[in-house]
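Q: What structure does this chain adopt?
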Amino acid sequence: MTSGRTVAAVVGAAILATGVTTAATHDHTRTTLPTSVPGWAHPAALVGSAPVDETVHARVYLPWRDPAGLAALTRAVSTPGSVGYGRFLTPAQFRERFAPSPSDVARVRDWVRRGGLRVVETSDDGQYVAVEGTVAQAQRTFSTTLGRYHAFGTTLRAPETAPSVPASLAHVVSAIVGLDDGTQARPLASPPNETPSGVTPAKVADPGVGFRQGTPCSTSWGEKTVTLPQPIAGSTEKPLAPCGYTPAQVRGLYGLGSGDTGAGQTVAFVGANASPTIVADVTQYSRLHNLPDPQISQMVPPGIYQRPTTPKNDPGSFFGEQTLDAEAIHTTAPGAKLLYVASSNAGQDFDRSVKFVVDRHLAPILSISYGFSGETVPQGFVNSLNAIFAQAVATGVGVFVSSGDDGDNASTLGKTAVDFYANTPNVTAVGGTSAAIVRGSGGSVFTPGGAPAAVPAQSSVSGGGIYGIDDPNNAVNKPGWTRAFEVGWQTGVTAATGTLSPAPTGTAPPTATRYTFAGTLDPGAPAFGGGGGGGVSAVFPQPSYQQGITDSARDGSSGAAGTTGRAVPDISALADPNTGFLVGQTQRFPDGTYYDEYRIGGTSLAAPLIAGMAAVANQRAGRDLGFLNPRIYAVYRQAAGTLYDVDAADLSSSAEFGSTPAVFRVNFTDGVSAAGGRTYSVRTLETANQSLRSVRGYDTATGVGTPRDPTFLSALGTVTPLPFTPDSKSPKVR
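A:
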């Protein structure tokens, strides 16, 4: 678990209720819903019929009433001078103005029940009706046939023909999500049997398989180095990859002071399953690294855990994502409350958890470290989720979404593309950087809530951890850290075969600070090893707050400058797992199950870090700022000095160790200990084999850059936001 995992390359069938057609069937007139079949479900890929007794979980979405009025409201709450500026609606006010009528919701519920489907849940505002039943029942209800298709190296279920609804519901149903089993958002990082109802999650699975970063590693950028037999990126000397930056170091990176805590705020985050050890783990982590004890709540939306764990995933593997999110948010907003909202243990229904937070306004900030690779998502699903995000804007919920961990997606999809949900104009897309954190004057720590709990002797945390990084009194857990530089995260991997000297021996961490590598380096171009997602959307047009700023952003597909599409990301933060973040979590090792710590990264780190800083921005402003993009781009225009312009062409730090920053990385072959041996590689931090480049000004690698220091967080509350005029063509229908 050394980096953010790839989001799913498949998405589910969803139906857009525009341009509908009607047809007479044997019993009544039906209205077909176009774009109901995902693009990968073409006849040549059909391999058979879906088992008629297989279970289907779907959501029937209804459109908002008065969409023009909602667009006007979204514009008003975001536009200074408007009578509605900053006057966010309460959930009750939103439902009164825009929710589907109770009679329409009742008609949909009655219709699906007549088809034999069970209504599992209806959202509080009636935006969707969640149903469950067999393939046979779904085929009868939606007048379609569900087949099995070969796609993306696996077999997936999808409709063979466009589903339909009774003509009387043609303008009542806007989308159906979940007839295919591709509607499963995947975490961007990853290292039950739940009761049918309840508020607090019960245990859903045992902890996931353990992982540890290899040693030797550095406790800060450049603290240990390796001399190579030949130069890479202009130098034969490279720093050893950091062991994982601590909260004190990350707070130093962004200059967060002792008063920057996010006090009075709540930050929600969503994810599949729920770790049974999350509270204990984040508490232990906080006490080891001088953070206050966390204030964590966990909730399960109604209907989420009404089915058993499926063999499609290992529930315990999702616990790492939840732990990373919680500890990242707690690092940048240690005084904020944390709210985890669980998604399905089958990897589905993720939109229901997002909806649960927004519809009930459980928090003014929502962090999402999940998504779908590329823009192959059927349009009805896009519309449905974008409607939820529009509701978030109207009700003052700022949504922060990871931009993805596959760079421009060319290596995984065969073409460049941005990811969904990050491509939607109603969210803040957070990209990734690689960061060099060195000794300096920045950062802050806090009085922990108590003494750390004891850990088994075999835990790497025992006795203060490797190089003392788990000792609260160690310098890595004290103030005194700052940024040497940040570059866009686009990793290039060069394999290294040979030996280190002085040679690491036994299982104890090597203690030397200077090493020499004897052996060979792969002479070929570095292989792409992950990077922050970005590019230009082919679905969503350029939002008004980006106009004049992202006009020259490079479209990865063509490499041409100039675009009218939504550019991604908006802003960035630490993500590179090669300069990554230290996370503490209970894991399952060969010698037992216990708390341990490891380095991890991905934009699933960047998004919660920024979400925590958004809580600090709200704290500094003394009010909830809501959707931040109009303010982020206003800061770029009006107070650019508060941003760190990530610009690979303008690096001048002596800490670079060459023309392009790179690290020498050591991995344990078995992922656990030196007993299984070590493998070596050189990781270039911003490789040239991607279309994404960090340049001066806005770019599709890192957006407007990263927060230089807390002056950026203050500026968010004082600038005049740029206008946000929702585009009537958003999203485009292809």
